[in-house]
Amino acid sequence: MAFIDYYKILGIDKAATPKMVKDAYRKLARKFHPDLNPNNADAKANFQQINEANEVLSDPEKRKKYDQYGTDWQYAEEFEKQKQQQSQSSRSRGGGGFSGGQSAGDFSDFFESMFGGGGGGRSRQAKYRGEDYTTEIHLELLEAYKTHKQTLSVNGNNIRITIPAGVENGQIIKIAGHGGQGSNGGPNGDLYITFSVANHSTFKRLGSNLFTTVDLDIYTAVLGGEITVDTVEGKVKLKVKPETQNGTKVNLKGKGFPVYKNDGQFGDLQITYSVKVPTNLTEKQKTLFEEIRNSL
User: Fold this and answer.
1) What is the rounded CA–CA span in Å between residue 191 and residue 179?
2) Which of 85, 116, 164, 279 sits between 20 and 30 A of 77, alpha carbons compared?
3) Facing residues of 39 across strands?
4) Could you give the CA distance from residue 59 to residue 67 in angstroms, rounded to a whole number?
5) pLDDT tens digits, residue range 15-69?
6) Do residues 272 and 291 make contact, with C-beta atoms less than 8 angstroms apart?
7) 162: which residues sit within 8 A by CB, 6+ positions away?
8) pLDDT tens digits for 244-255?
9) Which residue ranges does the chain devote to CATH 1.10.287.110?
C-alpha cells in the first residue's frame, strides 16, 4: 500500500495542535465540497482524502498509531501482539526477539508476513486481515436533517446502521469490522460508506448553515410589515423593517442544519430578500408612482 501523508493532505506539519487540524480540515472541506464543485471528479477525490485525513488526525489514538506506524497504523494492535509473542518465544529460547528500535525493513517484513504473504513456516501462521468494503448511501437533504436508521445489504449480510443527523454530501464513514472476514484468526476488514446527499429543496447548504432567497413585495419592502417564511422545521414569522433594500440578508440563528455528532447544536439559516417590482400596473397605479418619484 502506498504511503498516504495525511499531514501533507491537510497542509500541516506533525507538530500541529488539534485546533490547527480542525481549522485546516474546515478550510479545505469548504474549498473542495462537492456542492461547490459539481461534476468535478478531482474535487470529490480531494474531499474524500481530506475526510480520511481528518478522521485519523483528529482522533488522538489513531494519530498516535499513524505517527508511529505510518501506512500500517491500522495494524498496530496486531503488531504489538505479535511483538510480545515473538519476544516471549525468543526469551524462552534464549534469543533477543524484537529489539527496542526496529528498522523500516523489520516493520515491512512483519506486516508482509502477517498481511501480505511471507514464506516458509511463518506464512502458515500468518493472520490475514479481511478486505475492506465500500458502498454508497443516497439521501435527500431533508433525510440528512434527522438521525435515522437504515439497513444495508453488504456481501449478502444485512447491517442495521444509525445515520447521524448532519451527514454531508461526499462524507465517508467507517464501520469497523463489517468488511471481509479475516483468515487464520486475522481481523475483519472495515466498511467505508460514502454519502451522496441530493438537494431538491429551496435551501442551499454549506456545512451546518442553510441559505435561501425569499421574495419580498415592494410595498412591504418600502413600508415594512410581517411575512411568513419556510424553515426546515416549519414556518416562522419575520418582521420586515421599513425601507428594506433588495439583497438584504437576515440571519436566523439556530434554524440551519444540525451540527454533525453534536446533539442539540444547529447552524444558522440566512435569508436574502429579493424585492419584486410589480408588473401590469394600471394607469392610476403608474400615476401614483409618478407622484412618489416627483416628490422625492
Assistant:
1) 5
2) 164
3) none
4) 12
5) 899 999 999 998 998 888 877 887 888 888 888 889 888 988 998 988 888 888 7
6) no
7) 147, 148, 149
8) 999 999 999 999
9) 1-88
